[in-house]
Amino acid sequence: MNRAPLKRSRILHMALNGAADPSGEAEAGSGEKPFLLRALQIALVVSLYWVTSISMVFLNKYLLDSPSLRLDAPIFVTFYQCLVTTLLCKGLSTLATCCPGAVDFPSLRLDLRVARSVLPLSVVFIGMITFNNLCLKYVGVAFYNVGRSLTTVFNVLLSYLLLKQTTSLYALLTCSIIIGGFWLGVDQEEAEGTLSLVGTVFGVLASLCVSLNAIYTKKVLPAVDGSIWRLTFYNNLNACALFLPLLLLLGEHQALLDFAQLDSAHFWGMMTLGGLFGFAIGYVTGVQIKFTSPLTHNVAGTVSGTAKPCAQTVLAVLYFEETKSFLWWTSNAMVLGGSSAYTWVRGWEMKSQEDPGPREGEKSTVGV
């Protein structure tokens, strides 16, 4: 059958609308959004994640280690952010119940049985956010990504120790690149006289807890009917309860009583903003999943996971007017490159397992 040649404008229209049928019948029959609109939505959501995540890091650095504040209470800062997240979850749940359709949020009510089921994960969650903030308190924002870069390595190690899952040689090679970048970064920080050994140890512990958090999350999700928001609510609620005795034990209540800006509206505004950013990261991640297919979500996540830390590091170096050596930048490139390579290798391996190709003895659909 002969088809009339397509005009250049028609081809452009097909590309922008994601249509594969020249006649446009498939386009008219499907409710799929135009390609350009979907691409714009994905770009906006990823950009929003960048702004939220990077802003939260800089804001937390200010709250934890600002010479103008002089507040030595990292546990209290973390506790308050968990409290804000808990109140936001409950507030949105109440709004969704009172105004159906206005907000898409699950119904939340306190169930002590569920809270106990989530408790083991909450302990790991507390370690994750506490060590993250302690790492940020003692190291510079520019080194923050390298200091917490061993999460992938711990994922591989814990998968083998706890789940008895083996890892391919290619994936192990990418992990070796990450470890090499981490050690080179530590070496360069020491050479420049800016290395904090305590902060680096906290970064390693944060990486371990992030990996454990991912494993325990899968085990606990059934207790909250698979709802990430219910899990967020119970996690932060448990964290608030567990942080209170920790505050007293570490004597941070005395540091708060001696804090000169305890009645400052600016201080409490910055603290609340930090909690809002922490909640927003989870919300934006959920929106990103909603607006993307599994493939585009993985691609967007991989690109964002590589480019966002790079942008954050460059901004930190420029903002704090730091000068870094070539080897220091090389360590960052190794960490980011190794992490991206690991994600690509694992994605390729999973795709190969799902689509193994024709088995022996089966007829091929191609050729004679």
From TrEMBL:
Highest taxon, organism lineage: Eukaryota
Keywords: Membrane, Transmembrane, Transmembrane helix
Transmembrane feature ranges: 35-58, 78-102, 114-131, 143-162, 169-186, 198-216, 228-247, 267-287
Membrane topology type: Multi-pass membrane protein
Ranges where the Sugar phosphate transporter domain occurs: 41-336
Location in the cell: Membrane
Residues of the signal peptide: none
One GO cellular component term noted in the UniProt record for this chain: membrane
Listed Pfam families: TPT
Protein name: Solute carrier family 35 member C1
Organism listed in the record: Spermophilus dauricus (Daurian ground squirrel)
Lineage: Eukaryota, Metazoa, Chordata, Craniata, Vertebrata
